[in-house]
Design a protein that fits this description.
The complex is a heterotrimer of chains A (253), B (646) and C (230). Chain A is α+β, with helices and mostly antiparallel strands and 253 residues long. Helices cover 36% and strands 14% of the residues of chain A. Chain A has 9 helices and 7 strands, in the order ββαβββββαααααααα. Chain B is α+β, with helices and mostly antiparallel strands and 646 residues long. Chain B has 18 helices and 20 strands. A 5-stranded parallel beta sheet of chain B has the order 6-2-1-10-18. A 5-stranded antiparallel beta sheet of chain B has the order 12-16-15-13-14. In chain B, strands 17-11-19-20 form a 4-stranded antiparallel beta sheet. In chain B, a hairpin with a 2-residue loop joins strand 7 and strand 8 (201-209). In chain B, helix 4 (94-104) packs across helix 5 (111-131), helix 5 crosses helix 13 and helix 15 packs antiparallel against helix 16. By secondary structure, chain C is mainly alpha-helical. Chain C has a single domain (8-87, 103-225), classed as Fumarate reductase/succinate dehydrogenase, transmembrane subunit (3 helical TM bundles of succinate and fumarate reductases), CATH 1.20.1300.10. Chain C is built from 8 helices and 2 strands. Chain C has helices at 8-38, 43-54, 56-85, 102-105, 107-130, 151-161, 163-190, 196-225; strands at residues 140-143, 146-149. In chain C, a hairpin with a 2-residue loop joins strand 1 (140-143) and strand 2. Classes of the chains: A alpha+beta (253), B alpha+beta (646), C mainly alpha (230). Chains in contact: A-B, A-C. The interface between A and B is large, with 82 and 86 residues.
């Protein structure tokens, strides 16, 4: 836990005024950063520096800063959520970087995630996929007692593995095909594993895949990049289940 | 006498809610289609309300400042959700949950509201399970429970350390279904800045589109604020960076009373502060106290060595460890309520026994649990929390004790609401953390999720009907009314005023300053002198803020600096009210600890004779002092005693 | 099954089924080819080749096989174009090697290289057998009293006389092995036949299969080049 100071870092950051403007990389220098600082705090410090210089601050998405809301993104040195595994950008700490290093920071790149400003992208595509069927159709009230639906421990655990998805978009951002399959699979798989969700599993799989395709995400080629960059380690085994569910649904048509 | 009418129904406690429901008005399905409701915030309260109201047939418009409703900060709740299901056969009941919540809140909550909360708690679990929330289960397939602070029974349902996330995603799913059905319209990346009142009734909101920077107006027959708490007034807190009080604060300025602003919760188990550049504090779930033992060294010289970094905590033998919670509170041990645990940690650290370089940390040790239960079990229970801890601190909590320290977490105070969750403005509702209603002066762990969902799923959908039944003749709200023009103009002027200061210091600078003042003088331990000093410092900071603020970037465009500045402007005003409220309340209760009012053992010393009330503040204008209204709390079903966890 | 083929998963399923079909073909092909090195007289191989050329079932399967190739190639092209379109602006810096194998990221390129090889391969051998008027007709030999084309002579003379072709065939075998190192497992994943347990098994079987096929095909030209065939 020993704290060190990074004397100088060079930051190559994507700047883009708005969705319509053309963007470009800008280079910034930042000094004396403690290794205990989080990556986003380092950007806060840079922004503070920019305010002093009366320059426009760098826009980036972030909110909970504890790795659960899924708001933060960033492609750092060629990797979604940076060089550390199993973390979101907000959990990344500067101890992962070396003094004098040049750090390249880019927004998620995917046709389905257009840049809004600087490092912020629009992830409404994910919203639309879930709206297409990523839920169990129950109204409030009138449901059975919670313990009247027993669920095997391992099924519940596996469903929970999939349900851990935070919707950050790292999977689609890192996939060489910009495919959203892991995101879609996480929801389809979670609900297909549970008796509550099984009832409309076929409808859900078809609707969500159709929406995913419509929104211009690429096709899955099973490279597994999504899984290894997923901050919540969601397994591509869930993609296999999605494929199965989809095939089953289509065979019934 | 009080100008406040809490509208608590008559009759025995256990029958109040059912009687009330039976007698309030209901809107017919045909008329629901004609009524519009605005909901601000998409956390557990706002999200569940949005889904439920849309299912009923109302036209719902929802706002959130994040890029998706799924990111509301309820998502970060870790440990669990309480419900009086008595699945564990340990003699839990609605009354016991009610009683423990009232007691945990140090007798500063309304009996009727809390009883209703306990009453609907079971239905929440049923609802969430039906939505596909993957709660933890036993091998037999039934639901699993864990214990939480302040409770003598195991009634907390959980989904690993991500319960809030799973519950929120459940209600986000329910919302998505209604979005698809066209019954909910969501405005992402929209900050609601003001409430519009027409003829004394809330009729809409003014919001800033955070992408285009444009100020927009929206009308509805009723407005519901589920915009969360105000912990960020302390700058460093466990709240998300964007959490803010603006919607609630501007509702206050439009006539909604603000209740118990001094009641904030300090959470005992957070990762300690490491430096000036830190932007937020990370919570380690209270559930960790189930298996972790809290301690500091018994010998001051050991503490000194730990602070200097020359001693490994694992080398301190058990007999030299002071398990101070177990020592002071043998009945509850490590599971005392949050305010008690926080103060005890502060007491030890103030006495010089802190265990890190800043002297502001205590140990939470899993060595004993790992010895007893094995590493696998601990990993299953808390794996993600341990991983999070290691990522942040670079210390492996399986091998070394965790270091924790209290941090600002939750605001029990909020907009004053009656039994129907309506504020003092007609047609303006407040739910979840945004209102003041159920937790008194201290909230028990795993009760925030319960309250948010109770309000949204099972209370507001009934009570709002009572109001809207009288609005069925009101046509769609015309947003070209002069009241909307005026409100929009005010917001525009307010933002321009901030934007045009063109000073030298960033919004964050002022936020940090405010945080220091609040933590030092309106924090875990308060006294009259400090609070008076805080009032003075806040006033000075406000003056400096309006002189020296610098907002870079364009006005009509995405501008994070402008967003932050607008939020901080409201926080500064709220801070003044918090100090005032804390100064006015000459007693200690729950999270409000006035050092002048302590028992000889250092516990809170309530003054039920003079302060057994909810303080509800009425805004009287920028230049005027706010007016205090008191809602006397009536306890007919519990006996007021000195809270004891010994 | 409406819109199945236009869906991303549908296309992948077809890719996977055609891939599995081609895998089956490779097993048959390699088994037959290995006869080249188990019998230096060439009789076994010639009998095998003659059987393949005359058996009615094989004759029916042959056009299906060709179709399998065509479908696999066309769909791969469509999928790749869609995938490229899905990211109109690329990353300035991308460290893909950290999270996915090289083969899995370059299946289309590997497939393309294999296709180029396939054309050469067909020109080398298939053309001479099927369309002798365009190529060099094969000599006729007699094995156990049955007259047949001496395919062994055609293959062995190519490899004995050309280091270039030997190397080309070895290279192609390596590409094929790499393609299969991802493709084998991927076929099962795409049709949904995988989970946490089976994934590991299928991956290992896939690697093993890729090695067998790659090495199996590669040793044949090397065997001749090294002069083991006499």
């Amino acid at each position: 836990m020993s704290e060190n100071i990074l004397k100088e870092l060079t930051l190559k950051i994507w700047r883009q005024k708005d969705a319509k403007s053309k963007g470009r990389f800008e280079t910034y220098k930042i000094h004396n950063i403690s290794t205990d600082t989080s990556f986003l705090e380092m950007l806060d410090i840079l922004n503070e520096q920019l305010v002093v210089e009366s320059k426009e601050t760098i826009a980036f998405d972030h909110d909970c800063r504890e790795g659960i809301c899924g708001m933060c993104s960033l492609f750092i040195n060629g990797r979604a959520h940076g060089p550390d595994d199993e973390v979101t950008t907000c959990q990344l700490h500067m101890r992962r970087f070396k003094d004098g290093e040049t750090i390249t920071i880019e927004p998620w790149r995917s046709g389905a995630f257009p840049v809004v400003k600087d490092l912020i992208v629009d992830r409404k595509a994910f919203e639309k996929i879930l709206q297409a069927g990523g839920y169990v159709s129950v109204n409030t009230g009138g449901v059975p007692d919670a313990n009247s639906i027993p669920i095997a421990n391992d099924k519940a655990e596996e469903a929970m593995d999939a349900a851990a998805c935070i919707g950050c978009g790292a999977c689609a951002a890192t996939c060489k095909n910009s495919s959203a399959m892991l995101f879609v699979a996480a929801k389809v798989s979670q609900l297909a594993l549970l008796p509550q969700g099984k009832i409309e599993a076929a409808r859900r799989a078809k609707a969500m895949v159709a929406k995913m395709d419509e929104l211009g995400f690429g096709n899955c080629t099973n490279t597994g990049a999504c899984e290894s960059e997923c901050p919540k380690q969601i397994s591509i085994s869930h993609i296999a289940r999605l494929n199965r569910e989809f095939l089953k649904a289509k065979l019934q048509d | 006498m009080s100008a406040l009418d809490s509208k608590i129904p008559a009759g025995p406690l256990a029958e109040k809610w059912s009687n009330h429901k039976a007698h309030i008005n209901v809107v017919s399905p045909a008329n629901k289609k004609k009524l519009d409701i605005i909901i601000v915030g998409t956390g557990l309260a706002g999200g569940s309300a949005a889904a439920s109201l849309a299912e009923l047939g109302y036209n719902v418009t929802v706002f959130c400042y994040q890029d998706s409703p799924r990111r509301a900060h309820s998502i970060a709740a870790q440990g669990g959700i309480n419900a009086a299901k008595n699945y564990t056969n340990d003699n839990d009941s609605v009354f016991r949950l009610f009683y423990e919540t009232i007691k945990g809140g140090d007798y500063r909550a309304r009996e009727a509201n809390v009883y209703r909360l306990a009453e609907v708690s079971g239905a929440i679990i049923d609802q969430c399970v039906a939505q596909g929330v993957p709660f933890a289960r036993e091998y037999g397939g039934l639901l699993s429970n864990r214990s939480f602070g302040g409770a003598l029974v195991s009634r907390t349902f959980y989904a690993r350390g991500q319960t809030g996330q799973q519950l929120l995603l459940g209600c986000y799913g329910a919302m998505n279904r209604q979005i698809k059905a066209g019954k909910i319209k969501v405005y992402n990346r929209h900050e609601v800045i003001d409430v519009v009142i027409v003829d004394g009734k809330a009729r809409g909101v003014i919001a800033r589109d955070m992408v285009s920077g444009r100020i927009e107006r929206f009308g509805a027959h009723a407005v519901v604020l589920g915009s969360g708490g105000f912990g960020n007034v302390f700058f460093l807190s466990t709240n998300a960076m964007g959490c803010n009080v603006s919607a609630a604060w501007n509702a206050y300025k439009k006539g909604a009373y603000f209740a118990n602003p001094c009641f904030v919760q300090i959470h005992p188990t957070c990762i300690p502060v490491h430096g000036e550049q830190q932007s937020k504090l990370t919570l380690m779930s209270e559930s960790l106290r189930n298996d972790g033992r809290v301690w500091v060294p018994k010998k001051i010289e050991d503490a000194k060595k730990l602070q200097a970094g020359t001693l490994n905590p694992n080398d301190i033998p058990d007999e030299d460890r002071d398990f101070y919670l177990e020592r002071r509170y043998p009945a509850f041990g490590n599971l005392v309520p949050r305010d008690v645990a926080s103060r005890a940690a502060k007491e030890r650290c103030d006495a010089g026994y802190g265990v890190n370089n800043t002297g502001k940390a205590v140990f939470l040790d899993f060595k004993y649990a790992i010895e007893q239960l094995g590493r696998d079990t601990i990993e299953k229970r808390y794996g993600n929390l341990f991983q999070m801890y290691e990522k942040i601190t670079d210390v492996d909590p399986y091998k070394n004790p965790m270091m924790i320290y209290p941090a600002i977490h939750y605001s029990m105070g909020g907009l004053w609401v009656d039994y129907n969750l309506m504020t003092t403005v007609k047609g303006l509702y407040s739910i979840g953390e945004c209102n003041f209603s159920d937790h008194g002066a201290n909230r028990l762990g795993a009760s925030a999720l319960m309250q948010g969902l109770a309000d949204g799923y099972f209370i507001l959908p009934y009570t709002i009907g009572d109001y809207l039944a009288k609005e069925i003749a009101t046509p769609k709200i015309n947003t070209n009314l002069p009241e909307f023009d005026e409100a929009e103009k005010q917001v525009d002027e307010r933002l321009h005023k901030l934007y045009n200061i063109k000073g030298t210091k960033s919004p964050d600078h002022f936020h940090k300053e405010l945080g220091h003042i609040m933590w030092n003088y309106v924090g875990m331990a308060r006294d009259a002198e400090g609070l008076q000093k805080a009032e003075k410092l806040i006033a000075e900071l406000k003056e400096e803020f309006y002189k020296d603020l610098r907002i870079v970037g364009d006005f009509t465009a995405m501008n994070n600096e402008l967003e932050k500045a607008a939020r901080i402007a409201d926080f500064i005003e709220l801070a003044a009210l918090m100090a005032k409220d804390a100064l006015e309340r000459n007693e200690s209760c729950g999270g409000h600890f006035r050092t002048e009012y302590a028992t000889p053992e250092g516990e809170t010393q309530r003054d039920d004779e003079h302060y057994k009330y909810v303080s509800a503040w009425e805004f009287k204008g920028d230049k005027e002092e706010p007016l205090l209204h008191k809602e006397d709390l009536i306890f007919e079903n519990v006996e007021l005693t000195q809270r004891s966890y010994k | 099954m409406s819109n199945f083929l236009t869906s991303s998963i549908g296309k992948k399923v077809i890719m996977s089924i055609s891939g599995l079909f081609l895998i089956a073909f490779l097993i048959v092909h390699l088994s037959l080819n290995l006869l080249l090195i188990f019998d230096n007289s060439g009789e076994l191989f010639n009998i095998g080749a003659h059987f393949m050329a005359t058996n009615p079932i094989i004759k029916v399967v042959e056009p299906v096989l060709a179709l399998g190739f065509v479908v696999h190639i066309i769909l791969a092209t469509i999928l790749t174009i869609q995938n490229m379109k899905a990211r109109p602006v690329g990353y300035a810096r991308s460290e893909q090697s950290n999270n996915a194998s090289w083969a899995s990221r370059n299946m289309f390129i590997l497939g393309g290289l294999i296709l180029i090889f396939l054309v050469i391969h067909l020109y080398n051998f298939w053309l001479n057998i099927k369309l002798p008027e365009l190529g060099t007709p094969l000599e006729i030999t007699t094995v156990d009293g049955v007259e047949m084309e001496n395919a062994y002579l055609m293959v062995s003379s190519l490899f004995k006389n050309s280091v270039f072709f030997c190397m080309l065939y070895v290279l192609a075998a390596i590409f094929l092995g790499l393609h299969l190192s991802h493709g084998f497992w991927s076929c099962f994943q795409s049709v949904g036949f995988s989970n946490k347990i089976w994934r590991k098994r299928l991956e290992w079987v896939g690697y093993l299969f890729a090695i067998v096929i790659g090495v199996g095909f590669a040793i044949i030209p090397l065997y001749f080049l090294a002069g083991f065939a006499g």
